[in-house]
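Support request, please re-run this one:
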Amino acid sequence: MLQLNPDHIFWIYAAFMVCAVLFSFLINGLFLKFSRTLGAKNQDESLVRWSSTSKPAVGGLSFYILFLFSIACYSILFEATTYINDIVRFLGIMAACSLGFVVGLADDAYNTKPFLKFFAQFSSAIILIATGTSINISGIIALDYSLTILWVVGLMNSINMLDNMDAITTSVSISVILAVLYMLVVKDEVMSVYFITLLGVLAGLLGFLYYNWNPSKMYMGDTGSQFLGVFLAAIGILYLWNGHAAPDFRIQTKQFIVALLVFIVPIIDTTTVTINRLLKGHSPFVGGRDHTTHHLSYLGLSDRQVALSFFGLSFLSVIFLVVIDRVIGNDWDYWHFGLFLAYFLILFTFLYGITRINRDRES
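Re-run finished. Output below.
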């Protein structure tokens, strides 16, 4: 194993990021050249995709490749037994992410049944729970496990549903990873396997963003959204839901708000779409042009403006996370909870409200 000087770790990671982003850029370019039709679904695609043209949905392959690449680099750079405190937990996250990747790849290739996708999502949550990755907020095991399953399955579907317009899911995922990286720096875990893994996936997203930015040349597909969903759900559990000890209800409200803010865009969009579709008697799992992203376009925003708006909202949550950690810190109280919850509700009310305008344009 290579023995690293902690003073040089920044330059090691900087070099890793440059190489990983370049690798992501090149490999996505190769996928675009040689896989023009792979993953480009035609069946009912007009109901799901905002673009009127069919494009390759292969971007997710690069995410998983960079995920494995970062783990391989970690094994070279660090003494695994020193920095992987719980190898079973890490292997569980690897297994759950791999399952998400495989079911997404199968869905892109064969249009799998919704039940099969749900079963795989549920199984991913069970794998995480069985290997020690679960939300710890109530102290009641059954409740925490149920919340974990809801979180994992919900986020896998949410990230998938949000992938309906150029660069939306990509930019939102980037902001979530930046938030978790901040938490790792604060906790002095920069030599953790999770840190370099997050950098690897972040590099994959940055390299892919060049091709996914409007007008996009490719999509990430279910391969990417299912992998990202379970990966972000697991990392969110470790460093947002369980990022602080929870000795009392006051601190539990802080955990809840941190997770709510960092994942604010997918939570609001999925909740809005689910409510509207249920009110119409439609299944929430059937695609359509009724997302908050679409309704912002109906109001006159360009696709790029919509992507920038959602990235801005997500990045604002990262800033709020820093404020909560650095400015408020241990002085967190119930009025802070009320303040940030009010922000969430105001934003939800606004985005939900615009979906009630021009509803005839959804189809």
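The mean pLDDT is 86. The radius of gyration is 20 Å.
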